[in-house]
Prior knowledge:
The complex is a heterodimer.
Chain A: E1 6-15, E2 18-25, E3 28-33, E4 45-49, E5 52-56, H1 59-84
Antiparallel strand pairs in A: 1-2, 1-4, 2-3, 4-5
Chain B: H1 10-23, E1 28-34, H2 35-43, E2 54-61, H3 63-66, H4 69-79, E3 84-88, H5 102-107, E4 111-114, H6 118-127, E5 132-139, H7 144-157, E6 162-169, H8 171-180, E7 188-192, H9 193-199, H10 205-211, E8 215-218, H11 222-238, E9 243-245, H12 257-266, E10 267-274, E11 278-287, H13 296-299, H14 315-319, H15 351-359
Parallel strand pairs in B: 1-2, 1-7, 3-4, 3-5, 5-6, 7-8, 8-9
Antiparallel strand pairs in B: 6-11, 10-11
Helix pairs in contact in B: 1-11, 2-15, 7-12
Bound molecules: iron/sulfur cluster.
Amino acid sequence: MCLAIPGKILDIFQQDDLPMGKVEFGGITKDVCLAYTPEARVGQYVIVHVGFSLNVIDEDEAREIFSYFDEMDEAARQEEAEGHA
Amino acid sequence: MKFVDEYRDAEKVKRLAESIRRATSRPWNIMEVCGGQTHAIIRFGLDELLPAEITLIHGPGCPVCVTPIEIIDKAVAIASRPGVIFCSFGDMLRVPGSAKDLLTGKSEGGDVRIVYSPMDALALARKHADRQVVFFAIGFETTAPANAMAVVQADRLGIENFSMLVSHVLVPPALRAVLDSPACRVQGFLAAGHVCAVMGTGQYEPIARQYGVPIVVTGFEPLDILQGVLMCIKQLEAGRAEVENQYTRCVAAEGNRPAISQIEKVFRTVPRKWRGIGQIPQSGWALREEYSRFDADRRFGLEEMTAEEPAECIAGAVLQGHKKPHDCPAFGTRCTPDHPLGAPMVSAEGACAAYYRYRRHSGKEESM
Ligand code: SF4
């Protein structure tokens, strides 16, 4: 039950006084409670556990890991440039 | 799928593995805490990409695997009562109790239903006002916000035929138990990303300091896990022991505040027995007195029930990282996913099930 995958919020509605979202996971849509992520908006991605969204994925932070590879590429290019100098 | 596929890029996986190789000068043992991470490591063969010096030790973070046998016995006992609808996550149905599992209880006439969320169980209670609807509330800090909400809603909406059999477990006390064990070989941890998404990272600071172990909060995709390993190795090589966060796209240092306050409202910290490991102080959550009327243990008078675990299963040693599933004499013979002797063979997050699925034959079924 911990194998949560990110889902995209398609719609937001209320049910029994709780904020709910229609959330799509690779083609399957489920109703998810958004009470713990009241800041979530349509179009954003959330991590869902047993019917509850636990956090909104931070898109800037999500790119962070890829900058590591860019830095590595950059370092390699510089090394090569210096090698040719 | 966005936020999934790009973290499985085979080329980048190889480059990270190469960085790890360059950063490693001597042997290190790192434990990945969460069963979801274990599953990904075995499925994608990540451990086989690492240099020989690095050993990944599989941790106790599979909620199905650590739920004690007497709780299963209680679940079976409640499910067999007339008038009860017993609701559980699907993984729990095949976990063996001392005499039988929930699936057997179901085949013998118990009304056992698989639900996706505790809110589904609550909806069933509303629909069947003449029945007792019981939800099997197990899990780590990740399922607690949902279970807490179900109780609060039952209270608010006056749904009195709803109750929960609660067996919540907590990660930080389990890490201490692993570190306190005399056989402990763990030198660094990849902490469970989603647990930290709920609780934040602060609880791990005193553990890192006191035991001198680096703890890297890590996600679940191949790139996440390898970056977590790299961050951990860099700390170990430099002699640092800090809490670092690899999984920043999901984890804020302070955690999820609304979820934490709901958990605190509904649950109190209690000692909890872990399957294969034994009692760990302050390692679980149970319902607070204000909500005790929703406690299935009390409602059905089962508080005194206890049970012993089968001697053959070495799940305790597997869950603490002292042994690998292969080391168990029953693995793949007397214990298989179709006939599990122990809980780690049941859940997709269990180490024994992951090894059975991806490592039973010499060649792997799936790799990067
Ligand atoms: S293989 Fe089966 S019996 Fe052996 S430790 Fe794993 S679950 Fe227990």
